Amino acid sequence: MPDEDWPDGPIILGVDWNFSEHLIRTAAALAAALKVHLICAFVDPASYLTEWAPGNQRTALSLDPSVNEEAEYPSGHLQRKLEAILGKPGETWSFRMINGDVPKALNRLAENTDAALLIVGAGRPGTLAWLDRTLEGAVPVTLTHQQQRPVLIVPEPRT
């Protein structure tokens, strides 16, 4: 495929709390090869932004108007873990913390940034991980059904 046929939007990488270095390095290598920006996005499913509700339906300015220092901890911790692998954010990559249902939030970010591609991990192995996917739904599967752009699912290397 000629280079001019590939969209020049950023790559969105969905990162969870326990992301693997393999996932981050794979996404960064692909973004570098395609010469596009990498956006590492963490979705907090426990939060909801009232700004996404239509203005005439909002009953409050925020569901949690007070400053919540505990909510800032995960994003700062994740950014430091990413910086240990990728270096400081800047021209090649950035970090975003978004809120809501994970697949829907990643879809919104992809739409808003005109992303060329979404990348997510295949998920961790094990019974507890399987139970989580069964109860909550697998993010990679949901994205592939909801998304109009390519979704790359990166498996963990076998050890």
Question: Can you walk through the features of this model?
Answer:
The radius of gyration is 16 Å and the shape is globular. It has helices spanning 21-34, 69-86, 102-113, 127-136, 139-146, and strands spanning 11-15, 38-44, 93-99, 117-121, 151-154. The chain is of the alpha/beta class. Helix 3 (102-113) crosses helix 5.
Structure summary, number of beta strands: 5
Distance between the termini: 33 Å
For the residues shown, what is the average pLDDT? Answer: 76
Molecular shape: globular
Q: Helix fraction?
A: 25-40%
Strand order of the largest sheet: 3-2-1-4-5
DSSP helical segment count:
5
Computed over alpha carbons, the radius of gyration is: 16 Å
Q: Sketch the topology as an H/E string, one letter per element.
A: EHEHEHEHHE
